[in-house]
Amino acid sequence: MIAAANAGYRAIAFDFRGYGLSEHPAEPQKANLLDLVDDVVGPLDSLSITKEAGRAEADFVRFDVKSVIRNIYTFFSRSEIPIIGDNQEIMDLYDPTTALPLGFSEEDLATYASLFKKSGF
C-alpha cells in the first residue's frame, strides 16, 4: 500500500465483512457477491471516487470489441503468456490470424463480443 501511494496512486485497503478486523454478518448464509460489491462501492462513493477510463480502456478502444475479446482469450490460453514490452500494450500483440483456443468457437466469440459491446469493458 505504501509503495503504491509513493508511486502516485491512491491506495485504499478494503476490509470485507467477515474478514480481517470486520464483524461477521448477522446471517452469513445469506451473504452473496453483491454484498462484496457494496463493500467496495460504498467506500468509493463516500470518497467521491468515480470510475475513470484507464490504461486498458485506452488500449481496447483502438479495436472493435470482437478483436479485443479474441486477443484476450487467445493471449491467456497459451501455455506461456507473452511478455509485453515497456512501451507496449496487450493489443499491440494482436494477431487476427491466431486460432481461437480449443473449445472456444467463433459463435462463442460473437456472443461474448455482443455482451461486452452492450456493457463495455
From TrEMBL:
SUPFAM superfamilies tied to this protein: alpha/beta-Hydrolases
Protein name: AB hydrolase-1 domain-containing protein
Taxonomic superkingdom: Eukaryota
Source organism (scientific name): Glycine max
Molecular function via GO: hydrolase activity
